[in-house]
Amino acid sequence: MNSVFKAAAAVAALLLAPVAGASLVTFEVAGANPAAITATRDAFRVAVGGGVVAGANGSFGGVRREINWDGVPDARADPSLLPANFFNVNSPRGAVFSTPGTGFLVSASAISGTPTLFGFPGDLQTFSAQRLFTAVDSTITDVTFFVPGTGIAATTSAFGVVFVDVEDPGTKIEFFDATDKLIFTRDVLIAGNQGLSFVGAVADAGEKISRVRLTSGANSILSNGVRASETTDMVVMDDFLYAEPRAIPEPSSLALAGLGLLCGVAWLRRRRQAP
After folding, report:
1. Contacts by 108-111 with C-beta closer than 8 Å and gap 24+?
2. pLDDT band at 89 (very low <50, low <70, confident <90, very high)
3. What is the rounded CA–CA span in Å between residue 80 and residue 83?
4. pLDDT surpassing 90 at residue 16
5. Where are the alpha helices (DSSP H) in the chain?
6. Distance between CA atoms of 120 and 30, rounded to whole angstroms?
7. Chain mean position to CA 80
8. Which of 3, 223, 242 has the alpha carbon at shortest distance from 108?
9. Which of 91, 105, 224, 243 could form an SS bridge with 158, CB 3.0 to 4.6 Å?
10. For residues 165 and 137, what is the distance between their CA atoms, to the nearest angstrom?
């Protein structure tokens, strides 16, 4: 019997293993204004599915989630930091953020009394008015996925993002699987001052994305109107789009699935051998 369970565990390991030679379908575009990138964003939406009618908490048909930052209340926007788990607790969408920096900012609304666009109207614009998103004192944002509203680890099969003001090389997007193996990386297209760049990728061979790393230029915002450098590229973000996060199967569940598969194979063999 031990040999059976060992075999089942081996099958489970295969089920968890990264897809060999993983390749994802990429969508990318850069332009001077929202109209210039909307068609590619829409093509990404179609590839993921879910339609165009948003339900509660940015859900599109239970197939796709979106975050456009515009529903964040003023009390959670610039100059206040956005809680890293806001989009899994306050507005459950299954996304939790982390950064080596000091936190995250969502830009202020026009009626808040705080300058909009992080205080850089000559450098930034929105894709979907009126808020933007950035890490503080860092160019790195990591997005980890959970079953929305829970602490259950999850993966997604697609992720896309709008970057703002990509003027130099260095902005990129990276996907990691549940074993933290890099499965996808893409440099973001340069759009120029105030320009918009969209990049997204959709798994087409069973790839599962556990974490997304977003590297935004070589410069970071410290506070409204203040950045770390006046000579290097400062990049922020607008909309996030991703496939509905699905729970990562527990190893025990995978082992049971493997055991069931082995039992099925054994039954077929006995049936074929029967007179």
Report:
1. 108/74, 108/77, 108/78, 108/79, 108/224, 109/74, 109/77, 111/74
2. very high
3. 9
4. no
5. 2-16, 34-48, 86-89, 251-273
6. 20
7. 23
8. 223
9. 243
10. 17
CB atoms within 10 A of CB 113: 8
pLDDT digits (tens, 9 = 90+) for 188-236: 999 999 999 999 999 999 999 999 999 999 999 999 999 999 999 999 9
Strands (E) in the chain, as ranges, are 24-31, 59-60, 64-67, 95-98, 103-106, 133-136, 140-145, 154-155, 158-164, 172-176, 182-187, 196-203, 211-215, 221-223, 226-227, 236-243, 246-247
In the block, residue with structure tokens 């609304």: 109
- Residues 142-181 have pLDDT tens digits of 999 999 999 999 999 999 999 999 999 999 999 999 999 9
Torsions phi, psi for 239 (to 5 deg): -60, 140
The Cα 198–Cα 37 span in angstroms is: 7
Residue 150: what pLDDT? 98
Write b or e for each residue in 191-221: b if 16 or more Cβ atoms lie within 10 A of its Cβ, otherwise e.
beebbbbbbbbbbeeebbbbbbbbbbbbbbb
Number of Cβ within 10 Å of residue 181's Cβ equals 12
In terms of Cα–Cα distance, which of 270, 247, 206 is closest to 17? Answer: 206
Give Cα 243 distance to the centre of its chain. Answer: 9
Cis before 79 (ω within 30): yes
The first and second tokens of residue 98, run together, are 């982390």
Least confident of 80-89, 194-203, 242-251: 242-251
59, 62, 155, 168, 200 from 56: Cα distances, Å: 6, 10, 20, 37, 23
